[in-house]
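Sample 1 of the test manifest.
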Amino acid sequence: MSSILKTNALESEAIYIFREVISQFDKPVLLFSGGKDSITLVRLAQKAFFPAKIPFPLLHVDTGHNFPETIEFRDRLVKELGLELIVRHVQDAIDEGKVVEESGKYSSRNSLQTTTLLDAIAEFKFDACIGGARRDEEKARAKERIFSVRDDFGQWDEKNQRPELFDLLNGKIENGQNVRVFPISNWTELDVWSYIEQEQIEIPSIYFSHKRKVFIRDGMIWSHSPFVYQDEDEVVEERIVRFRTVGDMSCTAAVDSYAATISEVVGEIRLSTISERGARIDDKRSEAAMEKRKQQGYF
Amino acid sequence: MEVLKIATAGSVDDGKSTLIGRLLYDTQSLTTDKLEAIEKSSKQKGYDYLDFSLATDGLVAEREQGITIDVAHIYFSTAKKSYIIADTPGHVEYTRNMVTGASTSQVSIILIDARKGVIEQTYRHFFINNLLRVKDVIVAVNKMDLVDYSEEVYNKIKADFQALNAKSAYKEQNVSYIPLSALTGDNVVESLGEMPWYDGQTILEHLEALEPKDIYDNGQARFPVQTVIRPKTEQYHDFRGYAGKLYGNNIKVGDAVTVLPSLTESKVTNIRFFEEQYEEATAGSSITIELENDINVTRGDMIVKSGELPKVEKDINTTVCWMDSKKLVPGAKYFVQHNTNRVLAKIDSVKNVIATDYSGTKEASQLAINEIGEVNIKLSKAIYFDAYNDNKSNGAFILIDAATNTTAGVGFIK
């Protein structure tokens, strides 16, 4: 038996939030993207309910444009922990004519995920969707609540949010509404990486340096892939890169890096002068890109 | 890493956003792309200096109007600590936002424009920090560059604030004074030597020296049960663990405890955190506790050390800060959420409105949004509580509108 438990304030806060979710909602779900933040959430959920299993399923909204390494990782994690995984495909919404695929140079399925997510929420009647968004990621997210209420249409009313005081979380909602829950709201990118290092959490290989076929556009490193539009004059080259954030192949840019282990990655981030979402092509569309997507129900 | 939560409040004119931007810039917490965005935006607006306020004002409406609304969270870190700033506007119509920001902070920065001195807004910020018992307050006298770094001006403001401090009921509060210029950066992270008459700490030096104790660290151990963990697996067939966050003080294996409200006596046999077991846990830990005998414990119950029982009442005297546009009136029904416990309640009476400028109370029968007043509440079931001044976590509650489900107000039990 060890003696005194040393508390990590951010970890303790996240575990507290998970336990509030299971107590205040009937049908929670964890939104799992295969990225480091949602993988960290899975570890925190394990801690919150141990020795019981994680008492809710994972939901992956699959754009069909994922990095194959992410999907492989996802399936292994789910198997190892004995979790329930629900996958819903953006392709289905396209086939049903609910959404129209973007075309052209900057086309991405990133914003199409919203429809599939809202459909899945309705299909399973989820009342709480737990996500790995952090307030430090993006300025619209800096105002996001820990329990963030969405209406029947999945919309975020940012001017009319419930105040959150002390540790008191109010999860009371009406039928049809749901709540987005962000247990790692107060973590920074560095906090997440330090935690992954400390806990020795396994993450997909694309977070570490590897050789990849890429091309350069607007000063960013894009993956060469059938899912990514490429002009004829955009030349493919091979580079040693890694990813700091993992979304779709069409909206996530790589960074030059030789960081091959978690401690090297942590060292790199400590010295980095570019923010994580600096490599997110979807945020560069306009100054208010994220806020507009969130109002429409984007996660 | 230690985490220190800071509350800031103020209007755009105080240079608060500039101060925060300066803290981020001087601690190398602003990344190149964010800095470029600030440069681009400042240039577009025709400014000849970097407008750091653009780093902190998040929402479209705020950028359009050039004001800060709501509560924004800003993060920066040094080698020693992680800092979280809860930034709120300072006008009277944002009192509720200031209360929200202060509720989770261990330290508060009150900004004063050296040219204007102590004004009504200063009173309000300080009052809220008194009411919520924020342990440390830094009075930042900003824009010293615009008053020729005058020691006399600074001393006058300090004396005015000390007079205000004399009216505070929270005598244990640590109040410190720092003259600075957020625009030039003097005394924010480093001293630039313009004020040789000041030999105290810079803002960052002061923050680095503070102990980031949990804000609930005064008093007796309180363990509100969030959920009961029953794995029902072969290995843990009979396991029954009580999951929650510990407040107030440590708890140890072997401690004699009482479960509330049933008043059942028991003993702590194990403290778990994930796969590890511990002899003792400190306040602020999210843990799972096992008890000696199989007793009926559910969410909303509270485990305390026997002999350290909190008060129990059905009628509570409170100070409420109202946050809803629908007024608080006697007879109205709300849910009181106190720790993990939620009970139906009726507003018995509103006694007064307390002026946030220390000018006293005014008789009233209702509370409008952003007003603070004394309110008597009748609960459908007695709760076990402490006075807020003795044990913050067990003395605070929120009022939830039974019709709209919104968080309509926050209360502090006397």
